[in-house]
Amino acid sequence: MIQHNFNLFNKKFEIDKLKIVSSNSWIWSLRPKQPTLGSSIVSLKRSSHSFSDVTNEEMADLAHLIKQLEKTMMLAFDYDVMNYLMLMMVDKHVHYHVIPRYKQTRQFMGLGWFDKGWPTLPNLSDNQHSDELNILVKIQHELTHMLNN
Questions:
Q1: Structural domains for the chain
Q2: For burial by CB atoms within 10 Å, which of 23, 123, 129, 139 has the most?
Q3: CB neighbours of 103 closer than 8 A, spacing ≥ 6?
Q4: Model confidence over 90-139: pLDDT tens digits?
Q5: pTM of the model
Q6: For 7-23, how does the pLDDT look when each residue is reduced to its tens digit (9 = 90+)?
């Protein structure tokens, strides 16, 4: 059952398709829905439904990945605050929703991006721009480019 949840999670969030970077234990990928510019998922690379199952080595690896993520997101989109939400109510796999928060509108690819929840909770069901313009690929490219520079 745990492996089944893991496979469903990966499919639902298009982890392989939207991957930005993979560490030893974690994958940083874009969220298919973008409530704010650069909204992402950080997910454990192995099947697990309990945070207490994460090893010390995996936690150390997560700390390293978060430093890369925050530096890259700051360079790319100049966020004001970063929210990390571990909910696991529906998707029972160890993962965080990473939601950059913005006081003011950001522009990317000629589109305005508003943080409609600022300064309260983010609205994870919001999807500011459809992917008609392949915007996810463009965000992914921008983050990958910033990560490697």
A1: 2-147 (3.30.428.10)
A2: 139
A3: 80, 115, 118, 119
A4: 999 999 999 999 999 999 999 999 999 999 999 998 999 877 669 999 99
A5: 0.94
A6: 999 999 999 999 999 99
Per-residue HEC secondary structure of the chain comes to CHHHHHHHHHHHCCCCCCEEEECCCEEEEECCCCCCCCCEEEEECCCCCCHHHCCHHHHHHHHHHHHHHHHHHHHHHCCCEEEEECCCCCCCCCEEEEEEECCCCEEECCEEECCCCCCCCCCCCCCCCCHHHCHHHHHHHHHHHHHCC
Neighbours of 6 (CB within 10 A): 22
Question: How buried is 77 (Cβ within 10 angstroms: 0-12 exposed, 13-18 middle, 19+ buried)?
Answer: buried
User: What's the CA gap between 15 and 3, in Å, rounded?
Assistant: 15
49-95 confidence digits (pLDDT tens)? 999 999 999 999 999 999 999 999 999 999 999 999 999 989 999 99
